[in-house]
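Is this the right way to post structure tokens for a design question? Let me know if I should format differently. Anyway, here goes:
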């Protein structure tokens, strides 16, 4: 009989965290000076420090689990934060992790005091490594890989060890770039075209890593704390709070799926019940969005490496426009056959029922009869082969 109460408490905690973010959004102050952050690094504002202290109190005092932010929980938060930043262990070196381990047991006190600079220091190192990797990847495109070498690429590195040194990291990325190129070659593209596509993709990632804001880092950090308490608790930034408000009001548009950025891929974390994707049955958890296009036959825009917010806006489009998205199932290897699939969505009231449609490129009208503006989401399906995270 206590389970409904616990669920209710979890929702209350999530709503309180969202309301807290909105309440504090309008009073951002200049970042406080700190000695541990490198010059030019993102730093938490005084408002974010104050928010961290309040979030810490809410989690310890109002969360249904009644867990304490002790040293054991600090380690969980620390691991969650690293997982959010580099879950595939493709950027940080083993030496970076050794440097970070000094903060492993401090995350509990960090949120209580608001002294969250170590988390921003870790992110600064991530930015540095991200730039290094993208520059290295771009340089590798100057020459075509040797396709005659018999070697393998570890596609899912969730349980892999951190690269031991620079040479190991360079070899990992040599194989990753080769794998990315092979994926394009197997679609019929010649090497020069594939190299040009990858160069633009890596340059886009290189550009966007410098567009991350202090608020983005803060939201990531607070979610590491929230998810350490339980996987259904979240901290919402002001923008995320607005998204949450739209969903709770039962009025929204799009394909009916919650998305999250995992490494360089916008990944489907949950297909919403009753939404167009759920009705069509063409999207699954852990599928990855690779491109978004306009119109039924419009060319797709490669969105690998894009910010999550930008991909979401592109999928939704403006009222009255048509959009299409393509994705691959998590774990698909290059060249695996897949079938085209689509979802037809429309803006409206989520309480109104509708019906599904089928066709050569399957589509489902979003089950919201009051909506008027249609969107189309397509999915390039493939076979599943990797472990779920």
């Amino acid at each position: 009989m206590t389970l409904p109460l616990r669920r209710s408490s979890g929702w209350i905690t999530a709503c309180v965290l969202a309301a807290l973010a909105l309440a504090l959004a309008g009073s951002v102050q200049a970042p406080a000076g700190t000695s541990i952050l490198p010059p030019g690094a993102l730093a938490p504002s005084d408002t974010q420090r104050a928010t961290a202290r309040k979030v810490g109190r809410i989690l310890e005092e109002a969360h249904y689990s009644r867990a304490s932010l002790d040293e054991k929980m600090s380690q969980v938060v620390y691991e969650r934060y690293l997982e959010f930043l580099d879950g595939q262990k493709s950027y940080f070196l083993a030496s970076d992790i050794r440097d970070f381990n000094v903060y492993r047991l401090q995350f509990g006190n960090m949120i209580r005091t608001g002294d969250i600079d170590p988390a921003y220091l870790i992110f600064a190192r991530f930015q540095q490594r991200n730039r290094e990797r993208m520059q290295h990847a771009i340089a590798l495109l100057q020459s075509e890989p040797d396709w005659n070498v018999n070697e393998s690429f570890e596609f899912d590195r969730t349980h892999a060890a951190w690269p031991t040194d620079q040479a190991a990291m360079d070899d990992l990325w040599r194989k990753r770039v080769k794998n990315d190129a092979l994926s394009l070659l197997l679609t019929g593209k010649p090497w020069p075209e594939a190299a040009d596509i990858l160069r633009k993709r890596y340059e886009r990632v290189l550009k966007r890593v410098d567009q991350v804001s202090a608020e983005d880092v803060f939201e990531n950090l607070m979610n590491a704390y929230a998810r350490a308490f339980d996987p259904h608790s979240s901290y919402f930034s002001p923008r995320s709070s607005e998204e949450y408000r739209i969903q709770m009001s039962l009025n929204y548009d799009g394909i009916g799926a919650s998305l999250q950025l995992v490494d360089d891929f916008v990944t489907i974390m949950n297909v919403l019940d009753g939404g167009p994707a759920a009705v069509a049955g063409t999207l699954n958890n852990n599928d990855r969005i690779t491109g978004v296009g306009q119109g039924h036959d419009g060319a797709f825009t490669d969105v690998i490496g894009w910010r999550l917010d930008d991909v979401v806006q592109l999928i939704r489009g403006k009222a009255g426009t048509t959009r299409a998205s393509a994705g691959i199932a998590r774990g698909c290897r290059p060249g695996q056959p897949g079938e085209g699939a689509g979802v037809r969505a429309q803006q409206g009231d989520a309480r109104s029922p509708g019906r599904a449609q089928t066709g050569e490129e399957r589509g489902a009208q979003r089950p919201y009869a009051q909506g008027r503006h249609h969107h189309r989401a397509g999915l390039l399906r493939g076979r599943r082969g990797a472990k779920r995270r």
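Format looks fine. Someone answered above. Worth noting: Residues 254-380 form a domain with the Pdz3 Domain fold (CATH 2.30.42.10). The first strand starts at residue 251 and ends at 252.
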